[in-house]
Amino acid sequence: MNLSMTIAAGRICIPAKSVPLSDMAICCLLLLPLAALVPASVAQEKIDGVPSTSVTTIPSSGASVERTQPFKKSRGSLQPDFNRQIYYRNKLEFSADAGWLPVNVPFPFDVLEGDPYDLYPLRYTLAPVLASLRWHLGSPWGPPVIRGNWDLTFSLSATAIPRGPETHYFSYNMGLRRNFIPRNWRVTPYWDVRAGVGYINAKGPLGVYYAQGQNFTFNINMGAGARYNFGPRYAFTGGLNWMHISNGNLSSPGYSNYGINVYGPMFGFEMQLRRHRHVSE
Prior knowledge:
This protein is mainly beta. The protein contains two helices and 14 strands, in the order E-E-H-E-E-E-E-E-H-E-E-E-E-E-E-E. Helix content is about 5%, strand content about 45%.
């Protein structure tokens, strides 16, 4: 068999005048172009920790080189924030808090009232126990530094007075707490403020110097700390709390309004009241 052909640039040229080919020769001619499609090298590499495969095909001389570009991981992608299952709009929580407040300080706003910024000779230690209902007003939002939400707090408090002429204090107060919630942080800082009214067994009318001037009083609580979330339902809190009790000069001029200003550690336990399946972002 006389066969004349030219192989160049990946093509097979057969002259018009050619003799019949055998079956084996025909198979070879059909399979020869397919050989150019077999990868010459397979390389694997990692980009941003994600393996990717780059396939390079090297055909016969003169043919174009085809390269598959590796997959690149998007740097803007973020993991889902599990804190959205903990802090969300209309979540209701019950919290029980207890504190020990032995440190006496002057009233911070004495300067605004024109009073001297001094401590009174009589010292107090308060041990409050609070039962609170917390209503979350929204989901986490805001820039990363201050990202968080607010909850509205309603509290009933019973306070023992182990140091001081009075022995007990009962109150109702309400306020706001700001939860600072970075993405996927299990420990989240908070700041809160509460105010209300209460009843104390005042000893000023009984002749005790620097004691409280009447039974009906007002109170202010301010605190800051951190919350550790065990999961969507349970959490533990710890921080410092400042407590102020006074009658707002309602006892004057018959009895002076000295007030109580103390601070110390406060710890609490929080529990979700109802299950809620929140759709994460």
